[in-house]
Design goal:
The chain has 206 residues and is of the alpha+beta class. Helices cover 41% and strands 27% of the residues. It is built from two helices and eight strands; from the N terminus they run H-E-E-E-E-E-E-E-H-E. The strands form two sheets. The chain has a five-stranded antiparallel sheet, with helices on one face. Strand 4 and strand 5 form a beta hairpin. The longest helix has 80 residues. The radius of gyration is 35 Å and the shape is elongated. It starts with a helix and ends in a 10-residue tail after the last strand.
Amino acid sequence: MNTGRHTSVRIRSQSGLRLSGGGRSGYSLITVMINMTILSSLLGTCGICLHTLFRLDHKERVTSQLLDNLRRMEQQLREDAGRGTINSDSGRWRIQGAVDGELIVWSESRGIVQREFTESGELSQRERYVFPAGTRVEFGDPVGGVAVVRIREGSFFVRYPEAGDGGAVRNKPEAVALPAAPAGVVKSGEIEIHLQDAVRADGGSA
C-alpha cells in the first residue's frame, strides 16, 4: 500500500517537471525570434545609413574635383588669353602668342581638358584637367570679342563609368561612357567662363 502511494507521487512530480520545462523552452524560442527580428531591422537601418553616407561622400568628391579643376582652368585660360589671339579650330582653341613661335592649344575629350604649350615648334608643356565622369566641356567660337567655355555637369540620375582618375572611361563607346539622361528629368547644371575682350571682333588681339 505504501509503495503504491510513493510511486503515484513520483509520477505526478515528474510530469509536472516536464510540463514546466516545456513552457520555458517555448518562451526562449519566442525571445530568440523577437531578438532576431530587432537585429534584422537594425542591420537594415545601418545598411541604408551606410549607403546614404557613401552617396554623399561620392557627391562631395565629385563636387570638389569639379571646383578644383574649374578654378585652375579658369586661372590658366585668363592668363593665356592675355598672351595673344584666340582662334577656334574644330572644337579646339589655338592661342597664338605675341612672341613669335608661341602657340597654346586647348582641347577636350570626354570631360578631360588638355593644354599644350609649344615654343618654336617644340612641345614645352602639357597639362590635363580631369573633370568628373559625365562632364562635357565645350570651347565655343569667339564672337564679338568674347570667348566662352561651357562646362556641362553630368546628370544626377545617371551613374557614369569612371576611370581611375575619376574622369570618364576613354576606352568605351561614348554611348556607354556618357549615357544620356532619362527623358523628363531636370536639366543638369551648366557653368560658363567668359573671357571678355580676349579677342576683338576682327580676330585681332585685345
